[in-house]
Amino acid sequence: MAIKLENVGIAVRDIEAAIAFFTDLGLTVVGRDEVSGEWASTAVGLDGNHAKIAMLQTPDGQGRLELFEYIHPDAIETTPTLPNEIGMHRVAFSVDDIDAALETAARHGCHPLRGVANYENIYKLTYLRGPSDIIVMVAQDLTKS
Cys-Cys link to 119, which of 59, 97, 123, 145 (CB 3.0-4.6 A)? Predict the structure, then answer.
């Protein structure tokens, strides 16, 4: 059986803010829609499912994020995920300039959880809180610089 990762779905409080953040990091919006109806309720498993959605893609065309903002049922607020919690953890991106990526994130009020680490002069990386408290990892491969 062949398998490939299609996308990672992330529920957000404000889809416009999330789109602005991820497009500033370099992703491109490849589709937007508002979904509802029996098919949407069946697929997701929520009665009356109604959401705004946006599909974003990395410049290499290999990675996709599907963002969704629930209209119905109401979104459920939770405490922000911690890096060591079980379950959906983070979304990670390779960048060619981590400093530029962090400047972009800072314009959206998003900053590293602790700082930027250097892993054996191979990677510079950090975790930051993105929109809707999503943990986002950015990493620069120092061997390609």
Answer: 123
CATH class, range 8-72: alpha beta
Helices within the chain (DSSP H only): 15-25, 38-44, 98-107
Long-range pairs for 84-90: beta carbons < 8 A, 24 or more residues apart? 89/135, 90/127, 90/134, 90/135, 90/136, 90/137
What top-level class would CATH report for the domain 91-144? alpha beta
Residue pLDDT tens, the chain, 145 long: 777 888 999 999 999 999 999 999 999 999 999 999 999 999 989 999 999 999 999 999 999 999 999 999 999 998 888 889 888 779 999 999 999 999 999 999 999 999 999 999 999 999 999 999 999 999 999 998 6
